[in-house]
Design goal:
- By secondary structure, the chain is mostly beta strands.
- It is 4% helix and 37% strand.
- The strands form 3 sheets. Strands 5, 6, 7, 8, 11, 12, 13, 14 and 15 form a 9-stranded antiparallel beta sheet that branches. It has a 4-stranded antiparallel beta sheet with strand order 1-2-3-4, with no helix packed on it. A two-stranded antiparallel sheet has the order 9-10.
């Protein structure tokens, strides 16, 4: 069950299921998130740069070069070195780069300390910068993540239709969802999200929606015909926990 004060994960998946009816919208997970788990945990709270989704203090957004080589896992700024990724406080993602600079980006999520977590950092679109995936909510069988992207020399929260992007996964008696990245078959896509429903709690039928990045936004590229859940939908080293 979702923790009170946060929007239930079932609402996240319900919003995603609107895509099955032909909509391209998606909603964000919930209210706030908090700290506790990290990959390559940073122990210093000092920061040289602070990133937000509102005020812009850095250079204008730039579209990544299609010819860039894929980044190694955890290399957010694309300099060839692994960066430190942590959740130091409620609703805050911190990346401390190997250069010594730091970005801190706020996001919405469940305030329960046991719910949030860094799932991994993978170059989803092979542009030379690894995206960061964070679990923001969890309910009865269903969970939701969001994604952060390095654009214009700073880390940014990715949005979909003006809201925090939500990547649902898991299954309940009536709803199921999966997501992955680095889709190479047609249509090629950075992010793929499948959502479906069931009438018996055993078999599910739904559609996959395909997205590419445009700066710090997800743009819908297409949608599949009705299918069962994809069997091999993954995102590199990202752990769907």
């Amino acid at each position: 069950m979702s923790v009170p004060s946060a929007v239930p994960v079932t609402l996240v998946v319900a919003a995603a299921l609107l895509l099955v009816a032909g909509c391209n919208g998606s909603s964000s997970g919930s209210s706030r998130s908090s700290s506790g788990r990290s990959s390559h945990v940073s122990k210093s709270s000092d920061s040289n740069r602070t990133g937000t989704t509102g005020t812009q203090r850095s250079t204008p957004l730039a579209t990544a070069s299609a010819s860039a080589s894929p980044a190694r896992d955890g290399d957010v700024d694309g300099d060839g070195r692994t960066d430190s990724i942590a959740l130091p406080a409620a609703g805050t993602l911190r990346v401390r780069y190997a250069t010594g600079h730091t970005d801190e980006v706020p996001f919405q999520g469940n305030p329960d300390l046991t719910v949030q977590g860094v799932l991994g950092s993978v170059d989803a679109d092979r542009d030379g910068h690894a995206e960061v995936f964070v679990r923001v909510d969890r309910g009865a069988g269903l969970q939701a993540a969001t994604v952060f992207r390095y654009v214009g020399s700073r880390l940014r929260l990715v949005t979909l239709d003006g809201q925090q992007a939500s990547l649902p996964y898991g299954a309940s008696l009536r709803n199921a969802a999966k997501w992955g990245c680095r889709r190479t078959q047609s249509p090629a896509a950075a992010i793929e999200i499948w959502t479906g429903t069931s009438t018996d709690g055993r078999s599910y039928q739904g559609r996959a929606t395909f997205y590419n990045f445009s700066d710090s936004r997800l743009i819908t590229r297409g949608q599949s015909t009705p299918t069962p859940p994809p069997q091999n939908l993954t995102c590199g080293s990202v752990k769907f926990t």
